[in-house]
Model the fold of this input.
Amino acid sequence: MSRERLYLFDTTLRDGAQTNGVDFTLQDKQVISGMLDALGIDYVEGGYPGANPIDTEFFSKKPAFDHARFTAFGMTRRPGRSASNDPGLAGILEAKADAICFVAKSSAYQVRVALETTNEENLASIRDSVAAARALGREVMVDCEHFFDGYKENRDYALACARAAYQSGARWVVLCDTNGGTMPHEIETIVGDVIKQVPGANVGIHAHNDTEQAVANSLAAVRAGARQIQGTLNGLGERCGNANLCSLIPTLKLKQEFADKFEIGVTTEKLATLVKVSRTLDDMLNRAPNRHAAYVGESAFVTKTGIHASAVMKDPQTYEHVLPDSVGNHRKVLVSDQAGRSNVMAELDRAGIAYDKSDPRLTRLVEELKEREAAGFAYESANASFDLLARRTLGKVPEYFKVEQFDVNVEQRYNANGQRVTVALAVVKVDVDGERLISAAEGNGPVNALDVALRKDLGKYQKYIDGLKLIDYRVRILNGGTEAVTRVLIESEDETGESWTTVGVSPNIIDASFQALMDSVFYKLVRSGAQA
Done:
């Protein structure tokens, strides 16, 4: 049986850009739009030409997409103006875009209060704007803003707005839950009513996430007959965000209810790149990925408790609803204070560490993990430190070098420009094969100074760590008072782009930091195959 085509519309670069703290550069927009096209998104909305210099420049040249239709966003003509005498509309029509998405009020309340015009003038604005874009050969869609709230307030007028868009030639009439407060059952009922007057093949859904139901609302609209879904990568958007395409796409591809009935532009092969796409966006925005995000989060396929881990090792379906590889994620068994032998063995397998199931040192490793996590270590967040602990317990980590002493001083002084600055100086003494090496370095803080000094001269091992750098540093105080214990997590990266996390715990933040730094260096040496 042939499947219906369901279309995906991404508004990350426009609606997603309204997220607090998110600002896209022109290069960001170019890279992200190309990434969306490669993923298989049908429509990529690039922004609002004329609203700002970046969007105007972005729409000065059409991207060379292989699949997606480049879409410009803007308002319908202003009340009281003609379509030929509205500078804002002219800017949208002049944009180098395949399609135009107009936003129009579909709530009588919004027309009266926000636009301060009449219902009929608003309808005329919709008709005129669609007709003007159609006359230029553009594909047109109309985002019916506040549609669901407007429908509940004045059904006839909301439907009149949808009809005006469709009858004027809009390819898509998109119903917007602009305030994000509509429930899924309401969405399904209202969309079902709309498609009695506008064909479902021309109806879309644009859901906001203010009740944490944007994805559910989008799926409810599809069940009712809508055939376009608008959303953003990672659920970016104003307030609580928009419908998350990183959750919707796998659901549409992998859940039988939708996969059997619908075809989308994202292929099975492209679906396996979804985690990379999601994390690339976060990296570009300098945001920490949501580790608990559905499908693409780092914890989406993580098992922690011993009973669950044992079952997952027998058959992953016991605690997984889809295969992690299908979206580019991977299965992970955490090592924690709840760990049993099953957890530890699964993590050793993942790390590629050979072991004998009958080795009594495995039991010692389990007990060591429990004791250390009780003291504050967090190995589920520090893969590299677990790797080293396991290898050391099983007797497989060379003693590459020994730190005999380190010293850190922090000084506040005036620089040559007369500015008051704070400078840290660290001195580290290490023993490499009986040779004492002393290194000193300044840094913008004690940890930075220690990091630079430690990696400044490690003799014959220096060539292995030249590409090593610290990329993140996180501190957590585990208890209060003057004897507070500090946990430090350090994320490091090497010249290949691979990253790993190490952990240190101590009442002294410098000592905790140095533990994590040492683990990072040792892990790099082990990874590089350095010989003692």
Notes: Residues 347 and 376 are 20 Å apart (CA to CA). The chain has three domains: 4-266, 302-394, 401-528. The first strand starts at residue 4 and ends at 5.
